[in-house]
Amino acid sequence: MSQIKLVNIVGARPQFIKASAISRAIKTGFSDRLEEIIIHTGQHYDKEMSDIFFDELEIHKPHYNLGVGSSTHGRQTSMMITGIEEILLKEKPDCVLLYGDTNSTLAGAIAAAKMHFPVIHVEAGLRSFNKMMPEELNRIVSDHSSTLLFAPTNAAFKNLMREGFRPENSPPYTIDNPKIYLTGDIMYDNALFYAGLAEKKKASFLESLEVKRNEFVLVTIHREINTDDTSRLEVLIKTLITLARENSVTLVMPLHPRTVNSLKNKLTTLYKDLNNSSLIKIIPPVSYLEMILLEKTSRMIITDSGGVQKESHFFRKPCLVLRAETEWVELVKNGTVELVDADPVKIRDGFMRFINDGSGLEYPAFYGDGKTAEFILGEIIMMFE
Ligand code: UD1
Ligand code: UDP
To answer: Which of 99, 106, 152, 335 is 20 to 30 A removed from 136 (C-alpha atoms)?
Structure first.
């Protein structure tokens, strides 16, 4: 049997992490059937936003790096499409694998679908129902350009059905006769695989931060809506500073470069206050193992990240989400994630509730059995048999 050539397109931090689950599963069980070619669009490029993940998670060095870098949505995406098209022409893969909802996902979907390469979308069907978010447009276009769609939750699977995808479709699958699957979440595969290793390898990291287990709050902020709208960012930061002070709680904040840029350039005095506060630890983006150790040992999490919000569930921590809506609706229904937007009253109420009474919450298994990557690869192979 000949090998199936799969082009894997990544570009942003969460995609390196997701791709590591697929790469690991290929290495351990599918390398005789699947050949993996990695295209890095270069959307994220700082060492701590990119290389660190390839090194730590032992992902194969990208076969191609388009080096696209940061720009406006249109310019960034168009440069990616041009670069990906050239590589697909040369590589002529059997299929193209995409993750999530970034501009790298969108570029890969458009380039591949227009060249008639089957697109496989991992994390299909997620919807915020807010088309002002760039990610929502990216998801919709990517899903509707795909041939195999792997939905990580019931809600995502139902969203696809609502948009006309039919679970009863039978092979051969094509872009006009796509197949939708309900799977688990490959990020859960990773959390299970790496949690123990993080404890083993990164214990000194917690010491260097001088934080005690279960006593600090982990905070991340990076969404366009929270960083580019200065007044919103100001409200968020001021509310966090006040809550830390009033409750004598340490906040650990590994900040995305986008957030640092906005604070430095537009909220200079507040950024100085943040850095001078003894209760707030602003640190550069951390590695995945460091991050999951922080999640695992935190008291609660405050974030606008999709991935971090789910990881709060994997590590059984309550979580406030600094958005008005989420794609991971099961977490909100479960009562362990609360949507607090950028509303100081909601943030305060949620904070007080979770910090005082976070112990009796339940964390059901919403995201599969930790073997989602293997399931996905098995189905990809089936498509070619
Ligand atoms: C992107 C995704 C978002 C995802 C996030 C994960 C889109 C539209 N957004 O957002 O869905 O949640 O990645 O982290 O694709 N920057 C650096 N160094 C880097 C990367 C970025 O300094 O290595 C700065 C640049 O100033 C850049 C800004 O961050 O303009 C935003 O980067 P960009 O990749 O456009 O979007 P993210 O906010 O990272
Ligand atoms: N992450 C990390 N270091 C950090 C912040 C996040 O390794 O400093 C990981 C986090 O554990 C999760 C993923 O990056 O697996 C989430 O990425 P991000 O928040 O950038 O994007 P989103 O998930 O919102 O698209």
So the answer is: 335
Q: How far is the CA of 93 from the centre of ligand 2 (A)?
A: 29
DSSP assignment letter at 61: P
Please write the tens of the pLDDT for every residue from 111-154.
999 999 999 999 999 999 999 999 999 999 999 999 999 999 99
Q: Which tokens sit at 70?
A: 């940061």
Q: What is the pTM of this model?
A: 0.98
Per-residue model confidence as pLDDT tens digits over 235-273: 999 999 999 999 999 999 999 999 999 999 999 999 999
Ligand 2 atom with the shortest distance to the CA of 285: 8
In this structure, is the dihedral angle defined by the CA atoms of residues 153, 154, 157 and 163, taken in order, positive or negative?
negative
Residue 134 near ligand 1, beta carbon < 6 Å: yes
Q: What is the crossing angle of helices 13-25 and 186-209, to 10°?
A: 120
**In the beta sheet, which residues pair with residue 35?**
5
Q: Residue 277 and residue 241: Cα distance in Å, rounded? A: 8
- Domains defined along the chain, listed by start: 4-185+369-383 (3.40.50.2000), 191-360 (3.40.50.2000)
Whether residue 124 contacts residue 160, with contact meaning beta carbons closer than 8 Å, is answered with yes
